[in-house]
Please model this.
Amino acid sequence: MEEFEYKKPKPSGDREKKLIIILLAVITVLLIAILIIVIKKRSDTANNLVSPTATAGYSPTYYSPTVSPTASKTKTATATPGATATEDTDSALNGAKAVATNFMNAYIFRSLEKAMPYMTDAFIAGSNQEGFAGTSSPSRDRFDILSASVKDKAAQVYQVKTRVYYTLNGQDSGSEDFNLDVVKSATKYLVSNMSAV
Model:
């Protein structure tokens, strides 16, 4: 009786090459998917701006402004004349702070395009992306809304004081205060000027 010896066939180079190509293609697709997810999340964060017509509270940081669209409902007027005026002023100051928060979010991200919905036409006309973005160092890190006040009640102009914090090489490198002039037009508030204090 003759013995048969089973010999395992040697893998061909073509088969190994095909497996390597398939593996590289799968890894590439996964890396592209992860990159798209990261870009989408950053874009969502940058676009997390609130409506310029909202007139409620604000958050002092650009990461999570919290303007409640339902808070624009006015309270019922009382018999005291001063109470209605105070409520109107408070509502106007809240509207000014809300639009200032949105504008400053765009300012921190150095995006004139994202700031434009919160700016008057005259302010837009006098602005350009290079001037709005400024120098890249130090980095604009965050901001606070420090105060809001009535600048000209008859003209419905309000002033919002903000503070921008800068970082350099990951370390705090100072801050700068700005005044934003906010005007009320028909149904919305818009930033008409920004000046260093």
Observations:
- Confidence is low (pLDDT under 50) at residues 49-84.
- Helices lie at 13-46, 81-108, 112-115, 121-125, 129-133.
- The longest helix spans residues 13-46.
